[in-house]
Design brief:
The chain is α/β, with parallel strands linked by helices. It has helices spanning 13-26, 39-50, 62-72, 87-99, 113-120, 162-179, 200-213, 228-232, 234-239, 259-272, 297-310, and strands at 30-34, 55-60, 80-83, 105-108, 135-141, 149-152, 185-189, 221-226, 253-255, 276-282, 288-289. Strand 5 (135-141) and strand 6 form a beta hairpin.
Length: 312
């Protein structure tokens, strides 16, 4: 008989939303929507406004905004609108506002996330903070997993080395704590659960686990390498002889070896795992609520909620 997994008090998006409402009741973060022609993004932001979560700022083409509102019957309340000529101008504007402390978070609009981030993370935008790793954290609630599952990095850091992975874990911890999960259980994902020198991901997984054991990594329980099934299924872990890990079978978060693995897991779970999803980019001057272009209004709203909690 396998032991019961430890389930945090916050284990659903409903609980995450309640934390965001509590935070926004103290002070509503200023949320800047970047480019304005995506009806789903506008609808998600207006939902956040109607629930008293954010103070909106709209940055982009006002004519596109008016067309999107007319086409989809979206009602925009009295809101600050900054009219820009093109995507590049919109990104420069929002980056400057973040640097000057005029906004607290950014919401991705009609520009695809890879283009938004590529422009935003350019050195001249001054969005990145010195010495900090900028990374994406996806937060999933699978139907058959009894708690939230975070994953990084499926959008920003393509091929993290060991040093970068330490920064990714730090960002995971920050997001985890913001949503109410302290000391998260982080699985460093590999193809197998043993170390093979010819498989660098297994070597780095073991190194990170040992660093955590010796308190070089703060705020998280880290183990690796662990395959996907061993990370989230207690029976699979015990079947492979992993019986003493504090992470195996009950991971709160996954750190993968490359962007393809994280993105693949995230989108596969979203498409076929009946998941609630959301994602946020942190490590810059303000968090960025991001989504795939095809994501639903609910997914975009979830990302805004994550951005609220990650904001200062």
């Amino acid at each position: 008989m396998t032991p019961e997994m430890q389930i945090p008090e916050v284990h659903s998006y409903d609980a995450v939303l309640q934390r965001a409402k509590t935070k926004s009741a103290q002070k509503k973060p200023r949320a800047a929507l970047l480019e304005l022609s995506a009806p789903d993004a506008l609808t998600a932001l207006m939902r956040a406004v109607s629930e008293g979560l954010v103070e909106p700022v709209l940055i982009g083409s006002q004519s596109k905004l008016e067309k999107a509102c007319a086409d989809c019957s979206i009602d925009i309340p009295d809101t600050k609108i900054i009219d820009t000529d093109n995507d590049s101008d919109a990104v420069r504007t929002v980056a400057g506002m973040a640097t000057d402390g005029e906004i607290d978070m950014i919401v991705q609009g009609s520009v695809p996330s890879e283009q938004t981030l590529a422009m935003l993370l350019q050195k001249e935008q001054n969005f990145c903070l010195p010495g900090k790793v900028v990374s994406h954290v996806g937060v999933l609630k699978p139907e058959r997993y009894p708690k939230l599952l975070m994953i990084t990095d499926g959008a920003v850091v393509a091929q993290p080395d060991l040093k970068a992975k330490l920064g990714l874990i730090s960002n995971l911890v920050r997001v985890s704590e913001s949503i109410g999960i302290n000391n998260p259980r982080v699985a460093v994902v590999g193809a197998v659960e043993v170390v093979y020198p010819q498989m660098p991901a297994t070597v780095e997984g073991a190194v990170l686990a040992k660093m955590a054991e010796r308190h070089q990594i703060k705020g998280a329980l880290v183990d690796g390498p662990l395959s996907f099934d061993v990370a989230v299924d207690m029976f699979a872990a015990h079947s492979k002889g992993i019986t003493t890990s504090e992470v195996a079978g009950q991971a709160d978060a996954m750190l993968t070896s490359c962007i393809e693995v994280a993105s693949g897991i995230y989108h596969a779970m979203a498409l076929y795992g009946n998941c609630e999803i959301g994602g946020v980019v942190i490590g810059g001057r303000v968090p960025v609520a991001t989504n795939a272009y095809s994501d639903s209004v609910d997914a975009r709203f979830n990302s805004i909620v994550l951005g609220i909690l990650a904001s200062c």
